[in-house]
Structures are given as C-alpha cells and as structure tokens.
Amino acid sequence: MLFRKKIVKTLFLLFAVLLCAFSYSPITASAETNSLYLGGFSAGFTLNTTTVEVIGICDVITSDGMRSPARDCGIKTGDIIEKINGIEVKGTKDINKILAEDYKKYTVTVIRGGESIKMDIEPAVDLSSGTKRLGTLVKDSISGVGTVTYIDKANNKFASLGHPVTDLKNNFIEIQGGTVYGCIIYDVKKGVKGTPGELRGAFESRTVIGNASINCACGIYGDVSPTYDTSKLVRIEKGGIDDVKIGKACIYTTVHGNEVKKYDISIVKTDKHNKDNRNFVIKIEDKQLLEISGGIVQGMSGSPIVQNGKLIGAVTHVFINDPTRGYGIGIDNMLNAY
Fold first, then answer.
1. CB neighbour class for 28 (10 Å; exposed up to 12, middle 13-18, buried from 19)
2. What is the pLDDT of residues 215-269, one digit of tens each?
3. Secondary element (H or E) of residue 334
4. Where does the pLDDT of residue 124 fall: very low under 50, low under 70, confident under 90, or very high at 90 and above?
C-alpha cells in the first residue's frame, strides 16, 4: 500500500521521520533464537530509480533569449530519457555529464508508451551558468511512507513494507540504492469502503535508519545505519507459518508521531503457499485503531504481525471494499528474500 500515487506521473508519493524513542507493549521473546528486533515504526523512503522521467518542459535563458530544446525537438512530459548519443542514462548526473562533453551533435532516445523514439536536439547554453541544458525537469527518485517490519541485528539488515514498490502498471521499480529516514506521522486519512486511507508523515533528515539495497517481492531491504540507535527496540522470536493459528493476534504500527503501539487483530485465514505472498487474511478488531484510521491504510505496509509472542509476518495490503481487512506476508518469506 506504499506508493499509491506516482510522483508527478508514473511514480507514487508520500514520506516522513522517525524519532529515537518507541513505546512498546511488553513481548515475551526467546533471547536464544535469533537477533530479530521488532519494528512497527514509520519510515520515510527516498529510493533512487534506474530511469529518468521527464516531469516538465521548461525554458532556458540564453544570450539569444528564451529557448526550450526539449520542446523544440518534441520531448513530452512522461517520456523516459533512455540514452543521449547512445550513452545510457540512469540519473540526472548522467545527463549533465554527457552534455558537458563537446559533441557536435546530440541525439536523445526516449521511451514513450513502450516505444523507443530518437530525436536530434540542440542543447541551449544557460546564460547564468554557461552549462548546456535540455530544458527538461526530470525525476530519478521516488519517495513514500512505509513501516519497518524488523531489524536483523546480527546481519545489520532491515526489512520493510512486505510487498514490492511498483509503478501504476504493477511493474517492479528497479532501484539503485536509496535512504530510509525516520518519520513522524502528523495526520491519518481514514479509510472507507472503496477509498483506501493513508498515513501522512514528515521526513526527519537527521535520523537515518539505513540505506535501501533492493526492492523485491517481499519489500524494501537494506543495511542499518551505524548511527541508528537500536537500544530501545524489543527483541522477538520468529514464528513459522505452521505455528500460526486462526484467532487472536496483534499488529504493531504507528499512527501518531513516532509512537509504536500494539493493536488487536484476528487471523481469519492462512495460505502457506500463496504465490503472491498473501499468506494471511487479517481483520482489525481494535476499536481505537478503527476509530483513528478505519482499519488498514497506506503507509501501514510492513507493520509486524505478532501471535503468541512471536513475529509471524507483516501487513501488506488492504481490502479496498473493507478497510478493516487485509493481507499479510509470512515472516519466513521475508527472511528468505534477503
């Protein structure tokens, strides 16, 4: 449920801050089993993509007046700049590097509607900086709010979301790193039938949880920052899907500030071999959470599911027509993904 909206055109929006003090209800955990620490705290993700999307066309101030090379050659908002002069473009820095070279001619290749299109373009020299510009506004990263599921202290890794970050066509978005920040939730848009709600948060740039490494079917994973304080996190034992029982359980999530709280749910159904990692159907039972959010909302993805003192999985999706219900992924799937 992270990244419901795409940033500008094709990418989803959101993200926020995490503080260093967390409030947990006590959990009995075996200190011998593993080094998992319970998450449930919101995080702000800034992920570097491997594509450069044109999000706007602009003019360049030159010695001869205003010019827009992009507009003149036919580049449009929504185009993906794939290559310039045959050189692959994966970020804005690549564009700047290519334009800095003294080529006599420039050819830009864009992807539009799945089709590759080549166009000759004459960059404009910016009057103030003396550098060559295409007259485009581009985006090579996405941001959003989600929830950290656990921290694996022994391996210094974190896991979050429980599902992949995708574009509007449900295609995986390839990333080349990124930063995960602390996040403070300042508002909750309540979910209602047919319209998912969402957590609204603000990034805290001074609190870095870690560096994102991969976007896969089970979520966003990465390395925990050496400056991130895990001393207040609660150690918890892993529970396999075979241990899960239909009935009472709980989730840990953040719907205000940076305060992690426990909320009652029930496990309605289990599906160990579900190919889409929808291993549980859960129902929110907690009256306080229902009053605040209406149930599961965007940004709760990754909220850990706990039963009998063991971490068994994470919240992933909400039922659009019933925000009190949703899916969860089994923790074994998350642990085996990275």
1. exposed
2. 999 999 999 999 999 999 999 999 988 989 999 999 999 999 999 999 999 999 9
3. helix 331-336
4. very high
Of the candidates 72, 264, 286, 332, the residue annotated as catalytic is 286
**Cβ atoms within 10 Å of 204's Cβ, excluding its own:** 20
Residue 146 · residue 160 · CB < 8 Å: yes
Tell me which of 141, 301, 303, 317 is the catalytic residue. 301
Rounded-to-integer distance, Cα 250 and Cα 291, Å: 17
Distance CA 17, CA 259 (A): 12
- Is residue 317 part of the annotated active site? The answer reads no
What residues contact residue 276 under an 8 Å CB cut-off, 6+ apart? Answer: none
Side-chain half-sphere CA neighbours of 293 within 13 A: 29
256 catalytic per annotation: no
For residue 163, indicate whether it is catalytic: yes
Q: How many CB atoms lie within 10 A of CB 203?
A: 22
Average pLDDT, the chain: 89
First to last CA, the chain: 21
Q: Check residues 170 and 320 and name the one with the higher pLDDT.
A: 320
pTM over 0.90: no
Strands 260-270 and 310-319: unpaired
**Annotated catalytic residue: which of 163, 293, 303, 317?**
163
Backbone angles phi, psi at 233, to 5 degrees: -75, 155
